[in-house]
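Researcher: I'm preparing a figure for a lab meeting and need a structural model of a single chain. I don't have an experimental structure, so a prediction will have to do for now. The sequence is pasted below. Please return the structure as tokens so I can convert it later.
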Amino acid sequence: MYNDVVYGCNQAFEGSLKEAYGIITGDDPNKIMPHQIEKYFEQNSVLRECVLTLFTNHRMAWRNKSTHDYKLYFSEHEAFLAIVNISEFIKILLDQMIEKR
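Model: Understood. Here is the structure written out token by token.
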């Protein structure tokens, strides 16, 4: 059950990242990888360094591991942390999208 929460959060993370990229740049987000989006946000000062570090950490420590290692089992606390992180990431990205529009 907790694994499903983390996997769902990972999908929300990637989907919101791509949606924000599409709105901010006007480009098709379906042909770009999350790490490329982070690189774009860094190079174009869309997000500050501290926020980018947290995005990168989430992608590498949570998303990539859970996508490639099917033997992982997440705890209740890890699932809760994933929900909190994704909720805040989405809020930050939504702020950026609103600012762009």
